[in-house]
Amino acid sequence: MMAAAAGRAAAWFHDLERIFLVKIQFLGANRQVTGSRYLFEAGGVRVLVDCGMFQEREHLDRNWEPSPVPPREIDAVVLTHAHLDHCGLVPRLVREGFRGPVYATGASVDLVEIVLRDSAQIQEEDAAYKQKRHRQEGRRGPHPEIPLYTVKDAQRALPHLQKVDYGKPLDLGRGVRATFHDAGHILGSANVEFQVDSNGSSRRVLFSGDVGQWGKPILRDPTLFTEADYVIMESTYGDRDHGAREDVETQLGEIARQTIDAGGNLVVPTFAIERAQELVYHLSRLMEAKAIPRVPVFLDSPMAVEATEVFERHRECYDDETWELIRSGRQPLRFPGLKLCRSVEESKAINDLREPAIIMAPSGMCTAGRIKHHLVHNVARPECTILFVGYQVRGALGRQILEGNREVRIHGRMLPVRARIAEIHGFSGHADRSALMRWLGAFRTPARRLFLTHGEPEACDALAGHVQANLGWPVSVPEYQEEAELA
């Protein structure tokens, strides 16, 4: 009897402790760039902030591991935006037993639906291709020759998505509220601010998601904050700046012009969401100004085509400059010569062309998708250019090409790299170090602690030192699965 009573008392104290505890467990994007995932626990409510896919080669195994937190014990998921490294594991979470809502802004929900369906299809296609290739080679790869998740898994996850407006507090129960603010990173992206009210006191915990840049086309600038008790901030470019943004369009025009004059193709591995639309925006301006010749421009991705349509629906996210273009009768995401490719047949036909062209295709890091087929046809041609306009994680095919590998393995074949390799930093949707410092500099007083995530070790550590030296904030760079109690 006494033992049973003691057990009940211990359980009661444990439940009481959970009610008053505010805690974060770091489950991804820790000293690495991808796999964004955090368990935020407050007032007994357990919220998963992001549920992203790991894309670095050395961490791919984590995608296949069971969720570190039993999915049935998670009350809700909050997504900062629709990039795969922030939402890509939602179908697996649902398949493993998660039954709650997945909250995101309206634009993000529409994009996440596209991203998850596309990801599932790529998973199925890549698994089938690996099975065939490995049978022919008589070997097995390091990962299962089955999809990480299927199209059916993705479809089962979609009903969990629920739309939330910017600036409107979302009641998660037990004194916990979440408010989404425009992060300026991609369409629908958000900083998520949690307010926890307990025993007459209140705490604010702010997750930056990915912070965008100021002055980018189409989107509004990032939201600035003046106070928070704890801040979890990305640090992708924490050790460097992008350079002059106003030169991006000039650089793109020069690279395109030189490649076309040489008779080659300009091949741009791009992210289907945001980067593709921004490239279309700049190419439209360059061709209208006759700064580059009018050649065929291909956006080769059903996902990017669908994402462009979402952009055109969610004009509430546009900045004033884009609205001025629309009022003048111009379509910022359409121009003569732009060909939107959905089918496999349309994609294959691009490589039959004998005239110069500009080819944009995902994935942005060359890890999967149609870009690999275009690289097979162009990477060994000296007259062509491979242009990188986004971050390349360690181990990814894009990083190997960018770092100057003379040969790369694509679809099981070693190919020489003879094409010109170029990079434009200013296209990045991530804030650089100066912009991150501007974001933090808006706070009237330092937070109790700043946690830096979503960056490689060098970037995290460099930014931590810079923040401590210039702002005097206490800073931590958490490890994978580390827990932090917020006093």
Summarize the structure.
This protein is an alpha/beta fold and 487 residues long. The chain is built from 15 helices and 22 strands. A hairpin with a 7-residue loop joins strand 8 and strand 9.
Structure description:
- The protein has helices at 2-20, 61-64, 84-87, 90-95, 106-137, 151-157, 248-261, 275-288, 302-313, 320-327, 344-350, 371-378, 397-402, 433-441, 457-471; strands at 22-26, 38-42, 45-49, 76-78, 102-105, 161-164, 170-173, 176-182, 190-198, 201-207, 230-234, 266-269, 297-300, 338-341, 358-361, 385-388, 407-410, 413-416, 420-423, 449-453, 475-476, 483-485.
- The chain is of the alpha/beta class and 487 residues long.
- It has 2 domains: 15-240 and 429-485, Ribonuclease Z/Hydroxyacylglutathione hydrolase-like (Metallo-beta-lactamase, Chain A); 245-427, Rossmann fold (3-Layer(aba) Sandwich), CATH 3.40.50.
- The protein has a 7-stranded mixed sheet with strand order 6-5-4-3-2-1-22.
- The protein is globular and about 75 Å long.
- Mean pLDDT is 91; it is low at 11-17.
